[in-house]
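To: structure subgroup
Subject: Chain for Friday's discussion

All,

I'm putting the inputs and outputs inline so they're searchable in the archive.
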Amino acid sequence: MTRLQTWLTSLKVRSMRFIVAVTVAATGIAFVSSTGMASATEYCAAGITACLNAWGGGPAVNVYNPNTPNDNFILLGGSGMYYNIKYAGSGLYNGACISDALNDPNNARAGLVSCGGSAGTPWGANFSPSNCTSNNYPGFIFKNIHWSNGYLGPQTNTIGAPFYLNKPSGWCFAYF
């Protein structure tokens, strides 16, 4: 790699960091564009006991404990001002979005469905996050756009319980 190529690569990385920093400062919402790199994170509600989990690797999204396999997700800028929550684990559903199970617009059960590129945006995959705090961890409340009066939340905080996109009130998902 030439000196010029090295410098240009360095400039791109610094520019991306600046854009992300400005976005966080202006909106309070941290995200990484679909072209950027991100590290997977865990999102846990109910005092960090009810974590999003790609149950058995997907497609179901159920409650599980923190620091377990299949708990890693990434919040990405989606279409327009909305965001998608993508599974960042291994297996068939890596990169799939939390959305209406089986891409059924009448099913509010959370499931992993292919998204982006030629797959487009599945039903229920767009969220409008707002900031919150849970057990001193920063977090987000995920308002679902398809289910206009609905939020992402667990049926109960029991291991194995399903998540739904039409909960009547917001759950604060701490991320760590």
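Points worth raising on Friday:
The two ends are 36 Å apart (CA to CA).
Residues 105 and 118 are 19 Å apart (CA to CA).

D.
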